[in-house]
Amino acid sequence: MIYFLITIFSLFFLWLSWYKMNWAVALTIFAMPAYLLRFKIAFLPMTILEVMVLILFIVWLVKVLQKKEKITLSNYKWWGLFFLLTATIAVFVSVDLFASLGVWKAYFLEPIMFFVVFINTIKKKEDWKLVIGALGASALFVAVPAIVQKFTGLGIANEFWRAEETRRVTSWYGFPNAVGLYLAPIAMLFGGLIMQSKIRIFEKLKEGKFKIKKLDVFYFVVFICSALAIYFAKSEGAIIGLIAGFLFLGLIYPYKLSRISTASLVVVLILIGLFVPAVKDYTSEKFTLSDRSGQIRQQQWKETGEMLDNGRMLLGAGLSSYQVVVESYHKEAIWIKDKADAEWLNKIQTSEEFRKKMWQPLEIYMYPHNIILNFWSEIGLLGVFAVVVLLLKLLMNYWRVKSSENRNMYLILLAVFAVVLVHGIVDVPYFKNDLSLLWWLFFGMSWVLVKRKKILYD
Description:
The protein is mainly alpha-helical and 458 residues long. The chain contains 20 helices and 4 strands.
């Protein structure tokens, strides 16, 4: 029955791709969380999301060859290919060829294939609106169940996260941080659209005109639901990343009031952080990584650094090999330094009680939980270099849209990447099926803004 349903859906998507490529692209964007629906074709692991990307690319390629259409390329092309090449080399560095090929296919090849289809398909204002609508609907598809979980606990597998006093929502995923990783960049995008819309409304008010569009309501609902889901997931990295993204956008947005109000807010936040004891303690703990989570991250980075320094500086551990390769450098438990240590020492009764309190077991995570170390350990130093160049090109492309109508939208995209990078300091914002596709989707959107000069505004 499952394979019958997959076949029916695949045939429908094939038809949609052939006759309505822009709608097929939008449906793929909406269905990014569908990577959770997994199955096998013979010995080959697959997901519904992968099926959609492969069908989309094959249909696009057939139509291009059939009509002999010119293929749109981007100035990301050579570095995107180099990025893919470093991932290909990492397959052969890996200790598990089969597992690494699966990661290579799902996190590198297919997202770049989608990027190529995207920049060749999204050409009109209507196409862009479809993309924004699909992203918003996908965010709601993840956020609404998370909000329901907050008040019911339904669907949270982990007992600790399900307990009301320690509840962290997971939505369709198996862990809370997945909610923040997926929703934070989308929330930033829609928050930026709200900011743009408010400025537009303010300007219309000065002209004596006032009209709230349905899209404005949609932007607001998507942002609020996404922000609530992130908060209920208690994804601190996502929250801090989102705050950083808004401050970044407020400071660079070409609207005087925005810059003044954001700069004032930054000053106020700094003063609060310096002089309000509770806030000062919290921010100090987070920025110095001195809390439990931060200390675990530091230990991960130390172990990763030792692994890279021991003959793997250039090539890393190889795709899907980090857990195996770093094991010989791993500590099974670490001493957690706590500000309440002295008070606790006065209360404890036994050395066993003390040991349980202070020594925390440390598992070997799939990745080092730092965006640079993630790429470095997986695809080597040259892969890190490719990522840095791609991001610099993304930044430099702003000057290609600076004088166009798409300038403000491009600034919002830069803020989206600011969220990803800040969150990536302590997490893994790329190495997951939906996140890698989301990454290349945002790169695709940036290039569409460069090439299509008048697609966004009425």
